[in-house]
Amino acid sequence: MAVKLKRRSVALLIETSNAYARGLMDGVVAYQRQHARWSIYMGEHERRASPPLWLREWKGDGIIARIENEAVAEKVRRLNVPTVDVSAARLIGNIPCVETDDKEIADQGARHLASRGFRSLAFCGDRSFLWSNAREDQFAAVCKELGLECSLFMAKSVHDDDYSSTQERDRLRKWLKKLSKPVGVMACYDFRGQQILDICREIAVAVPEQVSVVGVDNDERLCSICTPPLSSVIPDAYGAGYKAAELLDQIMNGEAVTSEVYRMPPLGIAERRSSDIFAIDDEDIIAAERYIREHACEGIAIADILKAVPLSRRALEYRFRKLLHRTPHQEIIRIRIERVKALLRETDLPLAAIAMRAGFAHADYLSVAFKKVTGVPPSAYRKQNSKVASY
């Protein structure tokens, strides 16, 4: 006899106003369609808003929420149903939380800028957000590790709208003017990156020649309307939503789930024109780097680079490492692995086909190189991050 499964009612307290939150919802919906029988309820909800009125009458089985103020936290406590938090605020400590790995986000952003040869880096954050503070700390730590000059700017605002005030824009304008240039700047998220680009245009500072900028969230619409288009760290919002839904399902099924923080590492960096520059005074190494970026996935070797630049192998290796802090071979592998990651996420191609498209001689070599760099085999990475057949 077939067993009739109960359809559970799940509420989402997640805003729709930004790309990260929409990615969270995509992940939740994908899990629900693949594994669970849920009726999902989600009304209009703004970030940091009071609990929505519909929540007063809602009678359901579980909640996935961005709990970012005490009013929402108290309402969730009173409902006393299985809950998973997807906010870094951590206002309820005894429930599982899924959030971005902010240290890894800042690490990737800082190293992306350092890889372009910048000796001076800067971080623009907002102390009203815990995730921004974590990114600031890690950014400064990477700068110290690499021996780079580091400048920090923290917004004084409590609310996003205040950041656009004349006073705050004046503070940011003065800070940008004082920075040692050329400088690589990381914004705590894409909206800050857009503001930095706007002010650079106002004060006639060239981007990316004098100020190179990278944001966080990879909001493709926002990044594309920036002038120039904004490079951005790609958080795994989809994976975070999927994980949150998986945890909630386990709790509602009576399984034991610890109240720990599950941190989702970023997926890489979407490189656009705002950071498409090499802040080094060595035309040969710039030419070598550009050649690698354009041809790394074509199976090139160091001998091919030497045909493109007038250097001996020893000189190439020495100057490349001195200026960009890695060897030409490491750069080739890095670019190939980023290509593999994208193909694993966005296609269902077999590993042999991915190896061919990324410049690896065969799938076995790709697997070994991928695990060495990422810590997981390609199959595990695809399982965790694939966007194919999610709906």
UniProtKB/TrEMBL annotation:
Pfam families: HTH_18, PBP1_XylR, Peripla_BP_3
SUPFAM superfamilies per UniProt: Homeodomain-like (SSF46689), Periplasmic binding protein-like I (SSF53822)
Protein's UniProt keywords contain Transcription: yes
All residue ranges annotated as the HTH araC/xylS-type domain in the record: 286-384
Organism domain of life: Bacteria
PROSITE patterns listed in its UniProt record: HTH_ARAC_FAMILY_1, HTH_ARAC_FAMILY_2
Keywords: DNA-binding, Transcription, Transcription regulation
GO molecular function: DNA-binding transcription factor activity; transcription cis-regulatory region binding
CDD domains: PBP1_XylR (cd01543)
UniProt key word Transmembrane: no
Protein name: Xylose operon regulatory protein
Lineage: Bacteria, Pseudomonadati, Planctomycetota, Planctomycetia, Pirellulales
